[in-house]
Amino acid sequence: MFLTISTTGSAARPATDLGYLLHKHPGKAQVFATSYGDAHVFYPEAGEERCTAALLLEVDPPALVRRGRGKGRGGAPDAALAQYVNDRPYAASSLLAVALRTVFASALRGECRTLPERAAAPLPLRVEVPALPARGGPALVARLFEPLGWQVAAEPVPLDDHFPEWGDSRYVRLVLEGELRLSDALRHLYVLLPVLDDAKHYWVSAEEVDKLLRFGDGWLAGHPEQQLISRRYLARRRSLTREADERLELVRLADADDVEVEEIDNAVEPEQPDGSQERPAPLAVQRREAILAGLRAAGATRVLDLGCGQGQLLAALLKEPRFTEIVGVDVSVRALEMAARRLHLDRMGERQSSRLTLLQGSLAYTDKRLKGYDAAVLSEVVEHLDPPRLPALEYAVFGAARPRTVIVTTPNVEYNVRWETLPAGHRRHADHRFEWTRREFRDWARAVADRYGYAVEFQPVGPDDPEVGPPTQLALFTGGTGGTGGTGGTGTTTDTGTDTGTHEKKKEDAA
Ligand code: SAH
């Protein structure tokens, strides 16, 4: 099993820096004992302009068998033989990945005390694996590596050079080229070599999920083939795959707030329906104002901001003394950290900080900490959940936490045609799982209100276009018990009659 990693350089940045980054001296050939045999590291070339490190794993088949890696193949004599006579010693595979981890542990973590800035920056890299078992062939190889920024050449290796009519083997000769950080490159290989091999020779334990997430950090959650990667990496163990998918889903959510939602909504200035030159307040500001007005009118003092993101609403709530207890909840630790920074939580006086709590949690699970509040806000949050998970959120918020008042805002998809720079059919944010029409939102909100014994009314936020409605739609739910009562009762639905152009509340009894 053989793999090379090359880079190029110049006098100012010699290619031989690769030796520092890999923590392996280019002038030496070294041997490391791994669980499956000896791993040799050496440099076929080591110059200022080009430097190549090679990893050769000399698999020790008896070691493979001793470690029980041939298990699961049954006890038939030829199966026993297959444990010794197989492609393992020649083909790159999961064993090579294990060797990578053993031999290049620090480089995988991106650690380099001598040249930290080189480790942190992309390098021109070329990785070659002459014999890579690839279930799914060159096409899958490309689908796995290309989204990560690699240029991929994967040539099928013929079964026999002398008999082209025999066709191709299941091996490819893989060449990857790209400008990547070395640690990223190694982490891609660590995960994807076994995925392509698809024949793990070790027992997949629950810890493998942790490994997958650790080595997949920063690239796996957003990978278009994430599910295939998880499934194969975890040797198709269903419970593990499900766990990985769920945890990666949380990572995706956390990553989604890399982009500020309000920046997106406001990046595309709506055309003023009345043609006026005056610029309206940004939509995010109008949304916050509408929410604050709703909370004031409800007389709420103890408020939950569910899916608080980076804390813009929390900041506004803190400015008003009437809000005595403010709780921000988000699934994303990163968002909460940014909220804490934005609010200067570390420098906040005790009086202020005693009013504010930040909690990490998923709204798809009931949470005792959320019971007993006056009001909860879900501002631009529901559309970030996959539709099958919405009922869990509905139950957690309206059924279990049961704040007296709930304010939900979400985009009105009908309005998207008015954002000139939003290409047709596109959602406003890459992480939006759906965007509702006014009708869909109302149907959803009324059904939730009925189910959990709330009344609901609707308000437009932003310019209320006569044809397509407002950019943001808001639902105000009232009648919760603050977490003390049951969930019975029928809801009353009210409407603000946006189609008549007036926003005054036009109560209609649903009963
Ligand atoms: N409320 C803020 C942020 C909206 S972005 C605003 O109006 O600007 C959506 C936020 O919901 C993100 O911060 C995301 O991390 C959070 N979120 C998405 N799904 C969640 C879930 N299941 N549980 C908790 N928070 C969630």
From TrEMBL:
It is an enzyme of class 2 (transferase). Signal peptide: none annotated. Residues 479-491 have a biased composition (Gly residues). One of its GO terms (molecular function) is metal ion binding. Keywords: Magnesium, Metal-binding, Methyltransferase, RNA-binding, RNA-mediated gene silencing, S-adenosyl-L-methionine, Transferase. Residues 304-394 form the Methyltransferase type domain. Its EC number is 2.1.1.386. InterPro entries: 3'-RNA_MeTfrase_Hen1_bac, Hen1, Hen1_N, Hen1_N_sf, Methyltransf_12, SAM-dependent_MTases_sf. Residues 501-511 have a biased composition (Basic and acidic residues). It catalyses: small RNA 3'-end nucleotide + S-adenosyl-L-methionine = small RNA 3'-end 2'-O-methylnucleotide + S-adenosyl-L-homocysteine + H(+). Residues 1-248 form the Hen1 N-terminal domain. Residues 461-511 are annotated as: Disordered. GO terms for biological process: regulatory ncRNA-mediated gene silencing; RNA methylation. The keyword Acetylation does not apply. The keyword Ribosomal protein does not apply. NCBIfam families: bacter_Hen1 (TIGR04074). Belongs to the methyltransferase superfamily. HEN1 family. This is Small RNA 2'-O-methyltransferase.
